[in-house]
Amino acid sequence: MKLRKGVVVAASAALLLAAGCSGTGQAPSAESAGGGGGTYGYNFTVVTHGAAGDTFWDVVKKGAEQAGTDEGVTVTYRDSNGDPARQSQLIDAAVNEGVDGIVVSMANPDALRSSIEAAEAKGIPVITINSGQDRSAEFGALAHVGQDEGIAGRGAGEQMAAAGVTKALCVIQEAGNIGLEQRCAGFAEGLGGSVENLQVENSNPTGAQATIRAKLQSDPSINGVLTLGPVIGAVAINAVAESGSAAQLATFDLNGDVTQAIADGKMLFAVDQQQYTQGYLPIVMLTLYKSNLNTIGGGQPVLTGPGYVTRENAAQVQDLATQGTR
Amino acid sequence: MTTTLNPTPPAPPDTDERVARVGLLRRLVLRPEIGSLIGAVILFVLFAVSSTQFWSLAGISNWLDPASLFGIMAVAVAMLMIGGHFDLSAGVLTGTAGLATAVMTTQWGLNIWVALLVSLVVCLGVGFVNGYLVTRTGLPSFIITLATFLMLQGLNLAVTKLITGTVSVGGMAQVPFFESVRPLFASRINVFGVDFKIQIVWWVVIVAIGAWVLAKTRFGNWTFAVGGDPVASRNVGVPDKRTTITLFMGVGACAWLVGSLKLMEQTSVQTSQGFGEELIYIVAAVIGGCLLTGGYGSVIGAAIGALIFGMTSQGIVYAGLDSDWFKFFLGAMLLLAVLANQYVRRYAERSGR
After folding, report:
1. Option in A110, A177, A178 nearest B267 (CB)
2. Which of A39, A43, B37, B262 is deepest in the core (most CB within 10 A)?
3. Which of B197, B276, B318 is nearest to A78 (CA)?
4. Nearest CA-CA partner of B286 in B349, B215, B334
C-alpha cells in the first residue's frame, strides 16, 4: 500500500506537469503531433482497443498527441474497435515499421501476447495502458499505466454506501469487456448491499435510457444506479427522472454532461481514471527510457485513478471536460 | 453428292451460331472479378509508393493476416450470395465457434479434438437451421439470419457468462493436447526469415475448393441457377432447397474454421467476437463482383475483395494516415467497386452477350 501511494503521488506529479504543459488553450491537431517543443524525434505508436470516435478514447488520443508535441516525438494513434485480432495486426505493423516504442491497451491480453513479445524481441519497449494490469509485467512490458478496476469499483461502492444506497444497479454498456465486469464486482464488494448487473448498448443511449427506466419502475426498492461510462451516465439521469425513482446516481468517467449533472446535484460523483494521462504519461515514459534509460514504477502499475469528481470540484473540471481533455 | 439444290451454308467446325464470338478484351471485362483485380493492383501500387514496408515480406505477411481471415468467410458468403441469399449471422457465428470450443475444453475438460468436432457440428447446425427456415418459410434470408444473428449474440454472452462467470474465455494454451492442434491452426511458415500465419494457407485452400466447386461441379451450376431464378431452376429439376441449405452450411463450416483459427492463435476468445464482421464479408463479396440479387459472381473475386480489405486496413497504417479515416476509405472502396461492377454489367448487356 505504501508503494502504491508513492506511485499515485508520482502519477499526480506527472499529471500536474501535463496539465501545465497542455494549458496553452489550443486544441492539438493530429497534424501538429510530433513537430513540437523537444528535439528527440522518436517515433511512437499507440494501439488501443477503443473504437474510433469514442469520447473516452478520444481523450486518450489527445493526451498522447499532446505529449508528442511537448516531447518532440512523433505519435501515431491507432484504434481497433475492440477486436483483439485487429489490434495484434496493428502492433505487428508498428513492429515492421521499426518504431521506437509501442503503447498498448490490453483488454484481451492473451490475444496480444505473441505480438507484444515480437516487439520486445526486436528491442522495442512496450508500455501497457488502461486494461491488462495483471499481465503487463508477465509480458515483459516496461510499465503499466492505468486504473485498477477492482479498486475503483470498490471505491465507488463505498461512496455510494456512505450516501445511503443499499440496493443498486450496475449498468454495463459494453458486452465482452472484462474491465467493466471487474468494476461491478468491486462495486458490489464496496457497497456491501445487493447489486444487480444490467446490460445495455453504448451505441444505443435511448434504448439504454428505456431499459434503465423500466428496471427502476419495476423495482422501486432500487435506490442507487452506477453507470460505467459517461454516455450512459447522462441518459441514466433522464431515466431516473422519468421513472420517478429516488435512486442516487454515480458514473465512471467524465464528459461535459456528467460534470454539469454533478455541479447541479443530479449526480453524486464520477469515478475519474483521468485517461488523458493514460495517453500522455506513456509517451513521456518512453521518451525518458529511450533517452535516459529511466523506468517508472519499478514494475508496479502507475495508477491514474480513481480520482473522484464531486460537487466540490465539478466546476473546475467542467471546462476541461468540454475541451475534451478530461 | 454435289447435286443438292439448297446446300446448307458451310459452317466452320466447332462453332455454334447461338454463341456470339466475343473478343478477348471484352471477355476479360465480362469476368466478375476483373473490376476488383484492377482495384487491387491500383491500391497495391498506391500503398507501395507511400511506404516501402508495405511491400516488404514482413509487410505482406502483415496485411495477408486480416485478408485471409476475412477471405475464408468471404468465399462461403460469396457462394451463398451467388445462390441468392445473405447470412447476417456469419460474423457472430465465428465467435460462437470459438466460445464453444473454449468452454468445452477449459471448463468441462473435454478433449480439444472432440470439442473442435462438436463445435463444427454446432456451426453446421446453425447453417442448417438458417437454410431450412429460409427454404421452408420463403421469408427473406435477411430476416431469418438477422434473427439468428441476434439470438447467437445473446447466447454467446449469456451462456458464456452462465458457465464461466466472465465475458471472455482464456487459458487455451494450458488445455491438454493444445500443442497437437497448434500446427493446424496457429503455426507459422517461415519464408526467407519472415513468418506467415497458417491461416493464409487455409485461405488459399478454401478459395481453390470454392472456385472448383462453382466452376466444375454440378453443385456449382445449381448454385448459379438457384440464385438466378429459383422458380425456373426448380422447374428444370434443380434441388433448390438442398442447394440453399448446403450453401448456408458452407458458411457455418467456414465460420467454424475462422473461429478456431482465431481461438488457437489468440488462446482466448471474447463474447463480442465477430460482431459486425458479417458486413465486411458481404463487402468483400460485392467488391469481388457478386451481385446483391444473386446468380452472378465469383469466389476468386471475393478473395480479391478480401485482399483489398486487408491491404486497406493495414495500408493506411503504413501510409501513416489517421485511423479516423479508415471506415471512410472502406466505404469509398465499396462504392467504387459497386459502380465499376454496374458499369461492367451495362457494358455486357450493351455488347449483346
Report:
1. A110
2. B262
3. B318
4. B334
Report d(CA A98, CA B232) in Å as an integer: 59
Q: Is the CB of residue A199 less than 8 Å away from at least one CB of chain B? A: yes
Inter-chain Cβ pairs, chain A and chain B, closer than 8 A:
91
List % helix, strand, coil for chain A (3-state, nearest 5).
50, 15, 35
SS3 string, chain B, reads CCCCCCCCCCCCCCCCCCCCCCCHHHHHHCCCCHHHHHHHHHHHHHHHHHCCHHHCHHHHHHHHHHHHHHHHHHHHHHHHHHCCCCCCCHHHHHHHHHHHHHHHHHCCCCCHHHHHHHHHHHHHHHHHHHHHHHHHHCCCHHHHHHHHHHHHHHHHHHHHHHHHCCCEECCHHHCCCHHHHHHHHCCEEEECCEEEEHHHHHHHHHHHHHHHHHHHCHHHHHHHHHHHCHHHHHHCCCCHHHHHHHHHHHHHHHHHHHHHHHHHHHCCEECCCCCCHHHHHHHHHHHCCCCCCCCCCCHHHHHHHHHHHHHHHHHHHHCCCCHHHHHHHHHHHHHHHHHHHHHHHHHHHHCCC
Q: Which of A271-275, B14-18, B42-46, B91-95 has the lowest mean pLDDT?
A: B14-18
What stretch of H or E contains A271?
A: strand A269-272
Cβ(B311)–Cβ(B330) below 8 Å: no
Check: CB of residue A55 under 8 Å from CB of residue A202: no
**DSSP H/E element including A172:** strand A167-172
Total-model pTM:
0.80
d(CA B193, CA B211): 31
Backbone angles phi, psi at B260, to 5 degrees: -70, -40
Cβ-contact A208, A163 below 8 angstroms:
no
Q: Cell 421469408, residue? A: B139
| Percent over 70 (pLDDT), chain A | 88
Q: What is the pLDDT of residue B70?
A: 94
Return the C-alpha cell found at A172.
Answer: 454495463
Rounded to the nearest angstrom, the minimum Cα separation between B292 and chain A is: 27
Report the residue from B59, B273, B326 with minimal CB separation from A96.
Answer: B59
A111 vs chain B: nearest CA distance in angstroms?
4
Give the integer Cα–Cα distance in Å for B73 and A252. 38
Phi-psi region of B206 (alpha: psi -120 to 50; beta: other; left: phi over 0): alpha
Mean pLDDT of A155-177: 91
Number of H helices, E strands in chain A: 12, 12
Which residue(s) pair with A103 in the sheet? A46, A127
Can you tell me the ipTM of this complex?
0.74
Taking the CA of residue A57 and the nearest CA in chain B, the distance in Å comes to 12
Pick the closest to residue A44 from A130, A124, A128 (CA basis): A124
Rounded CA gap, B309 and B331, in Å? 11
**Residue from B257, B202, B250 nearest B223 by CA:** B250
Alpha-carbon gap, residue B165 to B146, rounded angstroms: 27
Task: Say if residues B61 and B296 touch (Cβ distance below 8 Å).
Answer: no
How far apart are alpha carbons B337 and B305 in whole angstroms? 9
